[in-house]
């Protein structure tokens, strides 16, 4: 399945804020450029109006004096007041011919604008566009006063303005991003606590609770989290209580079945064996040919009694509370080694002190090991089974490894594994059953010592 790349939330939000800020700076720069272009055109329009009015006055004086002036039009008087670098003043006659033109020199800029900016600016604003005003005297149009600015000068001025904004952006934007990142890191600091709480919940620590937060959104998450943890804790406690009752009922049924088998079936087998012995004595005197059948009946009854004895041992194990967990498990392993007759080798190792372990945990551990050995020997066909019981600070760990068939469905989904899961769940523990690294199966059980609380363990075994 394709997974999308993951990004840090602070980095993602900072990048978005930076993109929005850059867009705002771009909009501000565009606003300044548009305003500067309009101001430049308004300025040359004003100059064109002044030049036209001056030329009209000059021509009016000529008519008033009734003597033609050969120097009309004369742009020198007005140029002394309005000329700036790159500015051109001109008078265009009615025929379209420039009768006079006066331009001031444009200085060479120390930092010329880049070509890309020049092309962009020319495509948007058309610098160097002329402003023309008609020169009219007594209703007759004499020509036009024309004013324009060198495009290079106007472009350089626009680049100068835009350059200052870009410099401000280059300085302010990184600093702004750092401040935004720091603010987001501080605001999102509670998310670490939320993540730690979720990890504790995932580890079956349902006592995890989140503290109050300043932000309303995180406070809502905290309320939902705490409510969920409390609901899960209650649900698991109710489930554990029901499981404990079911296990207690199951064990009581086992004890009842063991008594019935011992009292009824066991006595019947003993009677059959006694009758077979009596029949053999009678056959030895009257009908020797029946001796083989009598011996066969006796052997069958003896075998059934041995099988019954093993069944009774599994249904009603020795009293773990009196013998202790270590002795009970050693006896269980020794019994399996004796019954397997060398076909399967069972070994067990203890690490820690288990004398003070509560009887309820000991009884459940015994049952778990009993079911695990049965699965390994009968379902998985293992030839080597190793058990290790370790006491850690705050918990007990059980590891059972075998070299059997790890893919056998009966070993993974049978009633034995289900019973083990129920017992582990009743003790608030964890169970995993997976294929071993070198083949076979690996069963891991971890039971917290907090399960030794009498209120938690009541009726567990």
Give me the oligomer status: single chain
Taking all Cα atoms into account, the compactness measure Rg is 51 Å
How many independent structural domains?
3
Largest sheet: 5 strands, mixed
Main location: membrane
Pfam family, one: HATPase_c
Transmembrane segments: 13-34, 165-185
GO molecular function: phosphorelay sensor kinase activity; protein dimerization activity
Describe the overall structure:
- It holds the Pfam family HisKA_3.
- This is Sensor histidine kinase.
- The chain has 461 residues and is α+β, with helices and mostly antiparallel strands.
- The protein has 3 domains: 9-186, no CATH class; 197-316; 318-461, Histidine kinase-like ATPase, C-terminal domain (Heat Shock Protein 90, 2-Layer Sandwich).
- Helix content is 61%, strand content 15%.
- The chain has 13 helices and 9 strands.
- It has a 5-stranded mixed sheet with strand order 5-6-7-9-8, covered by helices on one side. A 4-stranded antiparallel sheet has the order 2-1-4-3.
- Helix 10 links the parallel strand 5 and strand 6 (384-392).
- The protein is rod-shaped.
- Residues 452-461 have low confidence and may be disordered.
List the helices and strands and how they pair.
Layout: H1 9-65, H2 76-82, E1 87-93, E2 98-103, H3 115-125, E3 131-137, E4 140-149, H4 151-187, H5 190-202, H6 216-286, H7 291-315, H8 320-323, H9 325-340, E5 345-351, H10 359-379, E6 384-392, E7 395-402, H11 409-413, H12 415-426, E8 430-435, E9 441-448, H13 454-457
Parallel strand pairs: 5-6
Antiparallel strand pairs: 1-2, 1-4, 3-4, 6-7, 7-9, 8-9
Helix pairs in contact: 1-4, 3-4, 5-6, 6-7, 6-12, 9-10, 10-12
């Amino acid at each position: 399945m394709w997974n999308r790349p993951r990004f840090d939330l602070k980095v993602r939000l900072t990048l978005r804020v930076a993109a929005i800020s850059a867009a705002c700076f771009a909009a501000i720069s565009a606003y300044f450029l548009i305003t500067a272009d309009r101001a430049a055109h308004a300025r040359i329009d004003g100059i064109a109006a002044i030049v036209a009015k001056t030329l009209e006055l000059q021509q009016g004086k000529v008519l008033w004096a009734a003597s033609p002036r050969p120097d009309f039009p004369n742009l020198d008087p007005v140029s002394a007041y309005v000329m700036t670098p790159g500015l051109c003043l001109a008078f265009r006659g009615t025929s379209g011919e420039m009768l006079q033109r006066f331009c001031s020199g444009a200085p060479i800029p120390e930092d010329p604008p880049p070509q890309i900016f020049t092309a962009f600016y020319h495509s948007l604003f058309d610098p160097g566009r002329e402003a023309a005003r008609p020169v009219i005297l007594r209703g007759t149009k004499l020509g036009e006063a024309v004013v324009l600015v060198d495009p290079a000068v106007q472009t350089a001025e626009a680049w100068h303005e835009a350059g200052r904004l870009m410099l401000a952006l280059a300085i302010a934007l990184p600093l702004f991003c750092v401040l935004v990142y720091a603010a987001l890191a501080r605001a999102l600091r509670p998310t670490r606590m939320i993540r730690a709480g979720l990890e504790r919940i995932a580890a079956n620590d349902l006592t995890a609770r989140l503290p109050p937060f300043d932000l309303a959104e995180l406070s809502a998450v905290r309320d939902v989290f705490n409510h969920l943890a409390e609901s899960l804790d209650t649900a698991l406690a109710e489930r554990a209580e029901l499981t404990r009752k079911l296990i207690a009922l199951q064990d009581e049924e086992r004890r009842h079945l063991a008594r019935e088998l011992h009292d009824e079936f066991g006595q019947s087998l003993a009677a059959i064996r006694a009758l077979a012995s009596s029949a053999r004595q009678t056959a030895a005197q009257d009908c020797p040919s029946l001796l083989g059948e009598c011996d066969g009946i006796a052997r069958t009854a003896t075998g059934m009694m041995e099988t019954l004895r093993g069944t009774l041992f599994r249904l009603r194990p020795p009293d773990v509370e009196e013998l202790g967990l270590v002795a009970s498990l050693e006896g269980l392993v020794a019994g399996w080694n004796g019954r397997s007759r060398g076909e399967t080798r069972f070994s067990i190792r203890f690490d820690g002190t288990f004398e003070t372990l509560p009887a309820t945990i000991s009884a459940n551990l015994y049952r778990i090991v009993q079911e695990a050995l049965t699965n390994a020997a009968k379902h998985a066909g293992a030839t080597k089974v190793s058990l290790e019981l370790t006491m850690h600070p705050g918990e007990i760990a059980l590891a059972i490894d075998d070299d059997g068939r790890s893919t056998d469905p009966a070993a993974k989904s049978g009633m034995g594994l289900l019973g083990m899961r129920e017992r582990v769940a009743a003790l608030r523990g964890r169970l995993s059953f997976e294929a071993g690294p070198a083949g076979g199966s690996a069963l891991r059980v971890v039971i917290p010592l907090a399960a030794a609380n009498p209120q938690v363990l009541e009726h567990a075994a």
